[in-house]
Structures are given as C-alpha cells and as structure tokens.
Design a protein that fits this description.
heterodimer; A: alpha+beta; 4-stranded mixed beta sheet; 7 strands; globular; B: 2 domains; two-stranded antiparallel sheet; 4 strands
C-alpha cells in the first residue's frame, strides 16, 4: 500500500512537471524570446484571404525578423518570404516605408531623440449623431486632445512606448490591450474616447509622417524627427484618407 | 415565525419576485443597489436565520471582494486616474466603484434567489404555469429541485457505499478517487432515470391534458388583492420613473447621475417600499401573533 502511494506521488509530480514544461514551451516564445527563438513558420500556412481586409485601426503587419529591412513590395512579401520567421498576418506594407520591428527584438539605447506627437479626434465633430452621449464631456471642443509638440524618446523605442509615456505624463487616460496575434498592443482608448464610441467602425489609428503604417504601434520603431499623429476614425479610416486602398496607392 | 408572505396567493409571490429580481438586475443606481442589497439580506436572514448569515459571510463576502477586485484589473475606463498598474494601463476610481456596484448587484440577486427558492415552492410554480405551459413548468420545477434532490441522494448512495467499504473515505488516494467516480456514475444514472420516471409518472396521471383540473388550496382573497394592487402600483411607478430618466446613473467616463432630487427621492422610497414589503408583512404578522398569545 505504502509503495503504491509513493508511485502515485511520483506520477502526480511528473504530470505537473509535464504540464508546466508544456506551458513554458508554449508561452516562452511569445514575448520573452530572444533572437534565436522565433518559430520558423513556412509561408504556406498563410491564408491569402487575410490580405483583403481594409486596415481597421492600429493593428500590425507582416513578415521579417527584427532589423531585417528588406524593401519587399507588399505582394511579394506575402509570397516570397518563406524563410523569414515570425509571420504576422496583417495588411500589406506600404512599399518604401519602414519595416516593422518586433518589440521583443527592439534594442533600446540610452540615446535621446525627439519626435512630434499629437492626438486629435476632429472626425467625431462631424459625426456627433453617432457619438456616445455619455462621453461628451471628454470631447474637446476643437477635437484636439494633445496638441502637436516635441517629445523625447530613446533610440529603439516604438510608437507605443512614446505614446504611452507621454499620455501618462499628461494625465490622459490611455488603455491598450496586448494582442499576441499581431504581436502588438492595440489602443482601445485615449482620453476615455474608446473604440466604437462613435459608430461601429470607429477607433484609434496612427500615422507616422503622414502615412498609416498598417501594422501595430508596438512594432513601429521611431526615427529621429518622426511625426506621430493619433487620429480617431469614425469609418474604418476612410474618413481620414487612410483606407487600405488609398494607402496602397502610395500616400 | 412562519413566513407570512409565503401564505399569500402564488401569483402575488411570483409577481413580486419577478419585479424585484428584474429591478435588481437592471438598476445600477447606487441607491437602488443599496436598497435591493439591504432588503435581500434582511429577507434572506428572516427566512433562513443562522443558515443565511453563515452562508452570506462564508460565500457572499469573499465573492463580493473578488468581484470588486477583478473589475479594475480588466477595466481601465474612467476620468479619475489613481495610479498605473504594472502592465502600464491606468487604475481608475470609476472602475473600482463600478466593480463594487456590480459585486453588490450580483450578491443581492443571489440573495433574492435564495429567498425565491424558499417562498416559491415547486407546487406554487406548477399551480401558476401548469395549465399555460405544462411541460416547461414541469421541467423548470424539476430543474430547480434537481440540486437539493441530488444532494440528498448523494448522501444516501455514499452511506450505502460506506456500508460495503467503498466510500470516498476508504482506502488509498487512488482507491478513493475510483470510489468517488463510481458514486458519481451511480448518481448520473440515478438522475437520468429519476427524470424519466418523474416525467412518466406525471404523464400517467394525465398531467397537461386539456380536461384535467388540479387541486389547489390557494384562494385569491382581499388581502391578496391589496397586495397585488400595491405591487402593481409600485412597479408601474418605478418603471415609469426609470423610463423618464429618474433613476439615471452612469459610471463611465465620470460618475454622474440622479442625486437627491424630489422626483428621484420618491422613486427610491417607492423601490424601498416594494423591496421591504415581505419583511414588513412578516413583522406585522409576528406582532399580531404575539399580541394574541399574551392575551391568553
């Protein structure tokens, strides 16, 4: 009897260890992984249908391991990058624009840089009938939540890092949610104006130097002098001229 | 100290519970939540005495605390930022208050249901709905009865198994587990069989047939009429008040709503009167009973 109990205990410990190991293995290459671990997924697992969706809000784009700045054209990036690791299925990149850098691979140095940051939601002013009436007091009369100003960041930081820090400094509410599918944080709200607060197609989008990058803001590595604009859309970006189609036409 | 409200006509009981449960679930105004919470606790303690106090302290209090804590962990909406959480999202005053409000609502609804189970026995429910929706009301009353019935039966089965040395308290860990699984298997078989037997039994008695009458000792007398009028008046006034915005309250992005305006105050008082009615009736009956006793 005693012997059997012992065996049971050993078995139980083994099972627990197996579960923990599996969990670690599964979760391990999600956020903490270094350059060596990103899983090697063949391009054939990608569904071509995914490319058709218009770019709704601040989610991110495809391909390539960190720091590899291959200037693929958008369609060939989908098909040819078989050897590239960490495929993330989002809309095609704008040709000639910076490639995404996975946040876990970003190397933040101590070097100070400056960029311009602004947050505005003027589109709501044109769509007041759809706007959530409870949020009226959160809406500035001119629609500008954070007027354009120079802010400091450290080399290697993403749009997300600098936005979050500046909003925190300014005391503006800023809610985000990590989205493993796009390996980026999704911005749900700025200044208590949430996604879907102005119709079903509304939400926050970001532009850098006047162009919608089409991938998540945690994956956009800033350069000195970049101009970040957070803008609120009431119609999937169409009211901002940031439609997938217009973007592809080369903004 | 028998519950006097239970002696009212089933339709009165049922209307009152429906109104109070729906209002408790729907109104997020803090005064309404407080009234509902207080009345639910008071009535459940009146009905179940020590058992209810024990249950509320042991299960409801931790549930309240956990629910109130969970909300600010996932909800970061609100204009008053207190501090920032570890992941970088803000911790807001509004989300904390909303968490508490939601927890209070959850607890009061559970408490109301514990009262419902005592007052609305299955015979009352079947009396009310046996004619209109026979099969549904049978299923409903069987479902409501399932858990207590199952608990009683599991005690019987477990004792029988103990008699042959196969209870969950006998043997090594693995043996205990296998005994437990055996008991569970017996219970599942029993539950399925029992449900079919009950249904067959009801069918053989002609349950749900058109010409069948049901014996009932319920009479809708004057007292029931007054109670019904009171409930309907209160319910109507509260619904009208809520539709006209008298109970408006919002938690996000900033806390704002109806305060102590006379119209809203009248609604709060009406809601309190509705919720506390059974307790008042019981206290009045208890007094009458004591008065007649002391006269002898």
């Amino acid at each position: 009897m005693k012997n059997r109990m012992q065996i049971n205990k050993v078995l139980a410990v083994a099972v627990v260890l197996c579960v923990l190991a599996a969990a670690w293995f599964y979760g391990g290459n999600n956020h903490n992984s270094d350059n060596a671990t990103p899983s090697q997924k063949p391009a054939s697992t990608m569904k071509s249908g995914e490319a058709e969706f218009p770019s709704i809000k601040a989610h991110g784009q495809t391909t390539e391991k960190a720091m590899v700045s291959q200037a693929h054209s958008d369609d060939s990036a989908r098909t040819k990058s078989g050897s590239a690791a960490n495929q993330i299925l989002t809309d095609p990149l704008t040709p000639g624009k910076p490639q995404p850098v996975e946040p876990q691979n970003a190397q933040v140095t101590g070097k100070k840089r400056t960029c311009t940051l602004s947050v505005e939601c003027t589109t709501i002013l044109h769509n007041m009938k759809d706007f959530n009436q409870d949020k009226l007091e959160m809406l500035p009369s001119d629609g500008i939540i954070f007027p354009a100003q120079k802010v400091t960041f450290f080399e290697g930081e993403s749009v997300f890092n600098v936005s979050q820090r500046e909003m925190k400094k300014a005391g503006i509410q800023f809610e985000f949610e990590a989205t493993p599918l796009y390996n980026s944080n999704y911005i749900e709200s700025i200044n208590n104006i949430y996604e879907f607060d102005c119709g079903e197609l509304s939400g926050w989008m970001y532009k850098v130097n006047g162009c919608f990058p089409n991938y998540g803001c945690s994956r956009y590595e800033l350069k000195d002098g970049d101009n970040i604009e957070w803008v609120y859309t009431c119609n999937s970006g169409r009211d901002l001229g940031g439609n997938y189609v217009t973007n592809r036409g080369g903004v | 100290m028998k519950d006097a409200f239970s002696t009212f006509h089933p339709i009165v009981n049922f209307t009152w519970f429906t109104a109070v449960l729906l209002f408790s679930m729907y109104f997020m105004h803090p005064v309404c939540l407080g009234v509902s919470f207080f009345c639910a606790i008071a009535y459940s303690v009146y009905l179940n005495r020590e058992k209810a106090i024990y249950f509320n302290l042991k299960y409801m209090l931790p549930l309240l605390i956990i629910t109130a804590l969970i909300n600010p962990a996932f909800n970061h909406e609100g204009g008053t930022i207190l501090t920032y959480l570890y992941d970088g999202n803000p911790l807001t005053l509004e989300s904390i208050i909303y968490g508490i409000a939601a927890a209070v609502m959850l607890i009061s609804v559970i408490c109301w249901f514990s009262c419902y189970n005592v007052v609305m026995t299955s015979d009352k429910f079947v009396y009310l709905f046996g004619r209109v929706i026979p099969s549904l009301s049978l299923v409903f009353s069987m479902t409501l009865r399932f858990v207590p019935h199952f608990k009683a039966q599991i005690g019987i089965v477990s004792n029988a198994q103990k008699g042959v040395g196969r209870d969950v308290s006998n043997g090594s860990l693995m043996q205990r587990i296998s005994h437990g699984i055996r008991i569970l298997s017996i219970m599942v078989t029993w539950a399925l069989e029992n449900a079919i037997e009950t249904a067959d039994s009801m069918k053989s008695r002609g349950y749900g047939l058109p010409g069948r009458t049901a014996f009932s000792i319920y009479r809708f007398d004057k007292r029931d009429k007054y109670a019904m009028i009171f409930i309907l008046l209160c319910t109507g006034y509260i619904i009208a008040g809520s539709l006209s915005g008298g109970l408006y309250y919002r938690y996000f992005p900033t806390i704002n709503g109806m305060g102590a305006k006379p119209y809203s105050l009248s609604l709060y008082i009406c809601y309190l009167a509705l919720c506390i009615a059974p307790v008042i009736i019981n206290i009045m009956e208890d007094r009458k009973w004591k008065a007649t006793q002391s006269g002898i």
